[in-house]
Amino acid sequence: MSRWQQRALQLLRWLARMRYVKFGLVGASGTVVNMAVLYLCHNYVFDTLEADLGKPYVSLAVAIAVATMNNFSWNRLWTWADRRTHDAEQLPPAYLPQLLKYALASWFGIALQYGLTLWLAHFMHYLLANVLAIVVASVSNFLANDRWTFKKQKP
Questions:
Q1: How far is it, in rounded angstroms, from Cα 62 to Cα 65?
Q2: What domain range is 133 assigned to?
Q3: Model pTM above 0.85
Q4: Residue 142 covered by a domain
Q5: What is the pLDDT along the chain (155 residues), one digit of tens a residue?
């Protein structure tokens, strides 16, 4: 392995230890999931709905729900893996209360993303509007989930 490859690997390991970077990488994967589901729903699944009668609203709601499940799973398994309790390591429904906390902690960011996307879509392409709204909402989601959903347990 070359010196540059070793340095790149060290940098990646260092970044992986940083919780917000992990959260950002999970968020990036959620963005890809969100965009793919939004595109598929908007152009194929709900294609028969008239645009003014709900297609963008329903498509966006489904995309946000699927991306939220993706993000919860990866954040639980990777970003806050060091904060999992014994109960939270079990399969459903044992981690259902944590999922509910995650959803409640993320509600503001979800509402912010939803509303901001719909508003910005009047001025730009709906996919670009959605990306911008996701970036804005990510900060509130991180803080809420770090301090409540996955908060450090007292020993």
A1: 5
A2: 19-149
A3: no
A4: yes
A5: 888 888 878 876 776 678 888 998 998 999 999 999 999 998 888 877 776 667 788 889 999 899 989 999 999 999 998 887 655 455 566 678 888 889 888 888 889 899 999 999 999 999 999 999 988 888 788 888 888 888 887 76
